[in-house]
Amino acid sequence: MAKKPTPEDIFYDHLTLGLMGTLAKLPRVCNVNCEQRKPCEKTQIINWEQRNTIYLPEDMKKFYMSTDGFLLQWSYQYAPKDLRRVGFIHIPHLHQITLLRDNIELLMNTSSTTPSEKTLAAGNETRVIDDGTEISGSVGANASVPTLVTRKDRWSNTLPNITPKTKIFEINNVNDVAKVCMLYEANCPTNPKFYLYELNAMKWIFLSDTFSEYFRMAIAHLGLPYWELCFSNIGLPSWAEV
């Protein structure tokens, strides 16, 4: 007789949109495990907000009042004697979400590329140059200094404007080549967005407008390793490509 699911089992099944049941039906996938965690107390959330002088978005607040973080793992049987842990979805404990203070000046510099260092083709135009900065201007007799309009990533998503008032929190480290960050811009202190920051290239890539969207993206990718790198210039490691 099948084991009757507990209220906790039902909660995590709903939270993951039935992902664990889906994984359990896939050939060679085994050891599907979701760590059950206690919810955060309201005082923990208030203390975090006071310590960081910022408000958690409502969807994230509700998440942490249901479970203090999240960890789902699964393994794949490559061969009879070759079982490896592959799947991994991780949301840190609330107290582990800390300000990304290292090299903040460098992060600020990467958000203000000087357009005059780039070249334009002839004619009046607005272009997105290779670093994702959209500029407008003209050449020839009516030439003018190119004007910074906006900055976009390779997917044409607007990039953040990093200032001394920007608050950046690390959510996940991706294979030591990138970080998933929750970023509060100075003009939007209650609605952070989620970005991937490439450490070597020092570039931002937009991931989602909300925490809920980011979490659903992780579920949609089945927790496959380094799925966030699909959206980066780095790309997936060769062994992780399907």
UniProtKB/TrEMBL annotation:
InterPro entries: TPGS2. It comes from the Eukaryota. This is Tubulin polyglutamylase complex subunit 2.
